[in-house]
Amino acid sequence: MDQAWSFFINPLNLARITPPGMRFEVLTDLTDDPIFPGQRIDYRLRPLFGWPVRWTTVISIVEAGSDPDGDSAYRHFVDEQERGPYRLWRHQHHFKAVAGGVEMTDIVDYQLPFGVVGDLAGGWLVRGQLKTIFTFRREAVERLLFPDAHPGAISASD
Asked: What top-level branch of life does the organism fall under (predicted)?
């Protein structure tokens, strides 16, 4: 659990788990210090057709303790879009100690701009892009943090 948590709360690692084709760059001058509530991080990426997009997120929550049942170690943090391509972006990162390792869960709430028109015009594209990003992220995390695990031991549908 500590290894996964330490990796994810270092904002410089985000580029390591983002598909290279997105040309993701952290623009904020960061160190490898852990994230903290109120921290703003600026990025530039090229998610669609090579067009550059600037994105600012704010870390709104960083908490460690026990899970809601009090049974095991539990940690989570939340980043929210302050400026960027979405009308709303809220990404929760949950980490829970389990027998033999850690369970990591991402919950993303998002809304596209332009309401129903945005959903109709680009919803399918964004959903596909997010699936690609999180599949890549899952594989990158497995490769970087758990190199001795069997390849494919973590499935994209979990």
From this structure: Bacteria
CA contacts within 13 A on the Cβ side of 18 = 17
Domains delineated in the chain: 1-146 (3.30.530.20)
Task: Show Cβ contacts of residue 18 under 8 Å, excluding neighbours closer than 6 positions.
Answer: 24, 45, 133, 136, 137
Per the listing, tokens 């979990």 go with: 158
The CA-based diameter of the chain, rounded to the nearest angstrom, is: 46
Sorting pLDDT into bands at 50, 70 and 90, what band is 115?
A: confident
* Rounded Cα distance, 13 and 10, in Å: 6
SS3 annotation, 92-140: EEEEEEECCEEEEEEEEEEECCCHHHHHHHHHHHHHHHHHHHHHHHHHH
CB atoms within 10 A of CB 91: 15
Which residues make Cβ contacts (< 8 Å) with residue 89, sequence separation at least 6? Answer: 57, 80, 81, 108, 109, 110
Task: Write the Ramachandran bin of 131: left for phi over 0, alpha for psi from -120 to 50, otherwise beta.
Answer: alpha
